[in-house]
Amino acid sequence: MTNISLITGGSRGLGRNTASHIAKHGGDVILTYRSQEEEAKSAVAEIEALGRKAVALQLDVENIASFAAFAQTVRSALHSTWGSTTFNHLVNNAGYGEMTDFAETTEAQFDGLFNVHVKGVFFLTQTLLPLLADGGSIVNFSTGLTRVSYPGFSAYSAAKGAVEILTNYMAKELGHRGIRANTIAPGAIETDFLGGSVRDIPAYNESFAKMTALGRVGVPDDIGPAVASLLSSDNRWVNAQRIEISGGQNI
Questions:
Q1: Which of 90, 93, 190, 236 has its CA 20 to 30 A from that of 168?
Q2: What is the strand order of the sheet 28-33 is part of?
Q3: Which residues in the chain come in under a pLDDT of 50?
Q4: CA 188 to chain centre
Q5: Alpha carbon separation from 239 to 5, 41, 118, 171 (Å, rounded)
């Protein structure tokens, strides 16, 4: 039986890399995008080129009111593409960062981060539970910045800390359905996060590389394969864990 994974923010960055590696492991993908439809179509084509099925659906994870309609769209996609009523894995990846000193962070910035990373994850997962198969899994993305502090990320890291606690509650309360929930916490990665600062600004890249035992910052291919592996039955007994993938950053 084909495993189907739903990945929010799957059109680019770590979400897209994860989708690609899930396909390489023999899985199919429903990916969401907020506004970059062409990127989403490209991601679908990439997965289809690997011989797997994929569907791209529009979703703004900050728009809680849209979740019921989104669930119906997912239900229709499952029926039309796979002849299924459920999917197997939910990867809550969509998000963004703000780098602002604690003393300068505005209420709007704080609310935006918590609406996307906490409220969005909470209520999207809740809404999709009837479509998530028993024995499935949930992976929520966090950050290495919940373990160590780096100036400018107080609100972002606080939101991700809430996600880590929420993940443990998901594991506890959904365990009766055989659903496991884990958190992935990447270190500094070369993506377009924060405008691509780690990737494109040499001083940032060098600074984080010096903090890392393996002597470099991460790339998407360091993260996607790990998530795909975590979703597999090989890791069926891994539950309620925060798994940091950082190359040994700040140890």
A1: 190
A2: 54-58, 28-33, 4-7, 87-92, 132-141, 180-186, 242-245
A3: none
A4: 15
A5: 18, 33, 20, 7
Which tokens hold the place of 58?
A: 């529009």
Sole residue written with tokens 């690997």: 50
Dihedral, CA of residue 241, residue 242, residue 243 and residue 249, to nearest 10: -150
pLDDT digits (tens, 9 = 90+) for 28-45: 999 999 999 999 999 999
Provide the pLDDT for residue 150: 86
Q: What angle do CA 4, 173, 15 make, to 5 degrees?
A: 35
Q: Across 87-130, where does the E strand assignment appear?
A: 87-92
Q: Give the CA dihedral 14, 20, 25, 30, nearest 10 degrees.
A: 90
Q: Say if pTM beats, i.e. exceeds, 0.85.
A: yes
Tell me the one-letter amino acid at 168: N
